[in-house]
Amino acid sequence: MWFFARDPVRDFPFELSPEPPEGGPPGPWTLHRGRKKATGSAVSIFVYDVKAGAEEQTQVAKAAFKRLKTLRHPNILAYIDGLETEKCLHIVTEAVTPLGTYLKARAEAGGLKEQELSWGLHQIVKALSFLVNDCNLIHNNVCMAAVFVDRAGEWKLGGLDYMYSAQGNGGGPPSKGIPELEQYDPPELADHSSRAVKEKWSADMWRLGCLIWEVFNGSLPRAAALRNPGKIPKSLVTHYCELVGANPKVRPNPARFLQNCRAPGGFMSNRFVETNLFLEEIQIKEPAEKQKFFQELSKSLDSFPEDFCRHKVLPQLLTAFEFGNAGAVVLTPLFKVGKFLSAEEYQQKIIPVVVKMFSSTDRAMRIRLLQQMEQFIQYLDEPTVNTQIFPHVVHGFLDTNPAIREQTVKSMLLLAPKLNETNLNVELMKHFARLQAKDDQGPIRCNTTVCLGKIGSYLSATTRHRVLTSAFSRATKDPFAPSRVAGVLGFAATHNLYSMDDCAHKILPVLCGLTVDPEKSVRDQAFKTIRSFLSKLESVSEDPTQLAEVEKDVHAASSPGAGGAAASWAGWAVTGVSSLTSKLIRAHPTSMPSETTVTQRPVPEGDAAPPAAVSDTPTTSGHWETQEEDKDIAEDSATADRWDDEDWGSLEQEAESVLAQQDDWSVKGPGNRAGQVSHPDHRPLESDWNSWEAEGSWDQGWQEPSSVEPPPEGTRPASEYNWGGAEPSDKGDPFAALSVRPSAQPRPDPDSWGEDSWEGVEAESRQVKAELARKKREERRREMEAKRAEKKATKGPMKLGARKLD
């Protein structure tokens, strides 16, 4: 019937590449590239065509087919599928390249490193040890043509055509009949007398010596050339001479040869071989060993071959994260290996893992992701950022650990260009407002202001008008001096986003107030920025036609291109703030010199002064001013021309110790958090905000100044008002008609940043709770008094000496 006539080659699930054969080992096999029809994955296909009159070769090919199909070992060519018909034999293996072709290609690209050759030879010797010691088989064909290399650079032993049993039950070694292969036979094979005493591995170890010579010196012209080691490394020469010795009895077993080469100072004793051996046994290693290995791995990856990193290290890292609970330690080597991948491979292999990592509750992993976001942000598309990453990242703004809060703020510089309208202009601004107003860490408030200045160009025109002026004005009232500098430089970084009216009525009044700031660095930046804004106003005043050009970005839509100039301003501003901030952060509060203590903003007379920063050495006011002046002069001269070379003032130095010491951050309050960083100016949060309220900074910093309307007609001057006497009852209060009334509670301004009166709500909530608790205590007290009175009334007075039974 028709199905008996089907062609098995056509139905084979693999197809040969139209490219010409790569050339396999000498003999009947030809090596072709191929692919799997279903998936398109690359494979290698060894093809043997059955010819009439070549029954002996056909039997050798069928024996090789059977051996390769049944032998499974990591260092032996991996069998995938096969096809045996009357006309041909097909053996499908993993995609490999003949060793000779591989060495030639690498030589043209600069050659193989010694560590790569040491690991390749290690794999071949290990395969021979498996065959001889575990399977009692003699390979009988070890040579350059029998070794193949996969895409990871791993060497695989093939060429099993002439293999035979060492026990002799399958007959003697098969005849090769190929001169190119017979030149690798040891000299004792020519001596057929029984006097030749040898071990079962002696012949294969001689051929291994030939392979080592060819790897370092090229093709072996004749057996006599083995006497000259040539380019073989000195650390290997001694062991090589044992292999090619005339006495087969002294040739070492493959296992002992490996042991000798792995000795300290040996050819195979190096970091590359140790890394490979650990990866082969990683599934049975203890968690502590895995942690240590991954921590040290990233230091060695730079010296490892690129193919090895992509195809062997990367799968192990992904597996360790997915199934091995390796945690955050895999991130550094993972992103380092990711540099070797193409954009498409990165999207397929790395990004899914990164997205999954962001949903982890492990704080160590979250802070590592935030610190290294720059390495993978370019591979993330906007839908992924907005739906799968940003919702998890924003939790860091509310974290109890200051290092995570700060890294979350810094990550917004990278995420902002990819955020949608809601996440950027609403959600993010809400968190920034809360951090700038209520965070107890001065550097975090400072970096929040800095970040806002850098991402200002991405905000919508409405959000810019509502947020920037209020936020930077609030920063100028911060008790932490670098935050005040950040507020001033924030105005400078976004100078093109303000109208001339805002510059004159809102910004310059705020900046002028800073010209008498206690900190010289704040005063200097205030003067620079005031001159910049005055020059703009003066140019528009001289030539009013420039107004449209100067204000072209004020109402423009958010555009990444507009952030170029602002980024340079902000970069200059950020590093200037950071040098001081990082010094304050790195110093321990108990050992910090008094001159590094940041001066607090002065409070108006009559108000209680905020608690002073704790210092080991009491410092007088005059001494403080002298030290501050000297320090400022030295810092200004040292950092004048290297703003962009410095890093942000950050808590990164403390992050690692925080993660190592902390057991459960989520259950610790802000007062006793492990790794909490103290600053000299960090007083309790309540005292900080009390001092701000004393200055009126909440109203001035967050609300737009409202113009006072003139009183209505008919209102009498204050001098004509009868202040002492009684007014007739039929007259109304003349002040009742005024549109602006002083109020004890500030009015919520529709233009305020967060549009939420968080403090008012919290204060009111606390008052309500206190009132309820007081009422409950009063009710309880009344109940107790009533019960006592009732007992006395029923029992009467107790007699002297009577015992109270109840």
Structure write-up:
With 806 residues, the chain is mostly helical. It has 30 helices and 10 strands. The strands form 3 sheets. A 5-stranded antiparallel sheet has the order 1-2-3-5-4. Strands 6-8-9 form a 3-stranded antiparallel sheet. Mean pLDDT is 75; it is low at 561-709, 715-752 and 754-762.
Number of helices: 30
Query: What structural class do helix, strand and pairing data support?
Result: mainly alpha
Sheet with the most strands?
A: 5 strands, antiparallel
β-strand amount: 5-15%
GO molecular function: ATP binding; protein kinase activity
Subcellular location: Cytoplasm, Cytoskeleton, Microtubule organizing center, Centrosome; Endoplasmic reticulum-Golgi intermediate compartment; Golgi apparatus, cis-Golgi network
InterPro entries: ARM-like, ARM-type_fold, CIK-Related_Protein, Kinase-like_dom_sf, Prot_kinase_dom
Function: Regulates COPI-mediated retrograde protein traffic at the interface between the Golgi apparatus and the endoplasmic reticulum. Involved in the maintenance of the Golgi apparatus morphology.
